[in-house]
Amino acid sequence: MKVTRETRNKDVLVSVQGSVDIYSSPELRGELKVALEQRAPKIVIDLEKVTFVDSSGLATLIEALQRVHEYQGKLVLCGLRTTVLSVFQLTNLDNLFEIRPTVQAALEG
After folding, report:
1. 55-78 as b/e, with b when 16 or more CB fall inside 10 Å?
2. For the chain, what is the domain count?
3. In whole angstroms, what is the distance from residue 104 CA to residue 90 CA?
4. Which of 91, 92, 109 is nearest to 100 (CA)?
5. Cβ proximity of 51 and 21 under 8 Å
6. Least enclosed by CB within 10 Å: which of 49, 60, 80, 88?
């Protein structure tokens, strides 16, 4: 898995590539922790290049969502492939997260 983080105005874009699983989710958690410590008004997580998410990956995203809500920030997921989106739908997490089709839509919304 590869994770990059960049600031766009005051918002933070975290781009993820590969599998988000028990082995790689600590790296994602670390990048999200930095964004959360900055208290970014909006954190956008680009999952366009993610091929697989397991329960530990979902837990990492849920934890970030809970933490961003503590300071009234916003967390938006975007670019989910059909296979990854189906995991969110099967677990009913598509109703918990704001999901947008593209990075641009997520940053604008």
Report:
1. ebbbebbeebbebbeeeebbbbbb
2. 1
3. 26
4. 109
5. no
6. 49
Whichever domain contains 74, its CATH number is: 3.30.750.24
Mean pLDDT across 68-83:
97
What domain range includes position 59? 2-108
Q: What's the mean pLDDT in 78-83?
A: 97
Q: What does the DSSP 8-state code read for residue 97?
A: S
Sequence letter at residue 109:
G
Please give the pLDDT value at position 44. Answer: 98
What was the pLDDT predicted at 109? 81
Note the Cα 9 to chain centre separation in Å.
18
Using an 8 Å Cβ cutoff, are 45 and 78 in contact?
A: yes
